[in-house]
Amino acid sequence: KAGVTQTPRYLIKTRGQQVTLSCSPISGHRSVSWYQQTPGQGLQFLFEYFSETQRNKGNFPGRFSGRQFSNSRSEMNVSTLELGDSALYLCASSPGVAGSNEQFFGPGTRLTVL
Amino acid sequence: EDQVTQSPEALRLQEGESSSLNCSYTVSGLRGLFWYRQDPGKGPEFLFTLYSAGEEKEKERLKATLTKKESFLHITAPKPEDSATYLCAVGTGANSKLTFGKGITLSVRP
For all residues of chain B together, what is the average pLDDT? Predict the structure, then answer.
């Protein structure tokens, strides 16, 4: 079974620009969660999508948004980029149903904001 | 607010020198405690899920245990390829949000 894939793997943007990251979950998984990982804060939860609906949201500003498509693929968008948005953005997929709590992570997208 | 604290921050072992990594947590309604391994430049790799106090799980040289306030990841006779960052996370409530600790960077010298 193929794992979680994320594209692109690396991105370089400048302040003020916007960026869209993509995630394809494991086949059959309906839940996709996004996390931001930085050296100072570690892994922090951004939001979760299940069946095209945002089911949970972390404490990030509205510049961070996402969506999920009918095939469970998800995109994350960051508008008006700031230097502090430089991070590894990780996507995790899970079945999303009761009793199946494990999340499986993709390789991440390394975003650098100059 | 859910909190996860891992200690020590870094651990250096000689090959074959067994040790334990600690994960302390404060949550309301634990749905599961998760251990992940992360290699540099890669996403976290799932290792174990523990659901209730007293539960133990093993995989090769790794054994995870759970009490009501903490979890331990025991590494028996580690090898250099066990060098990585080990992350602990808790899940609470009915959603998929995980709260992570900062991780423990393990280095095993040959």
Answer: 94
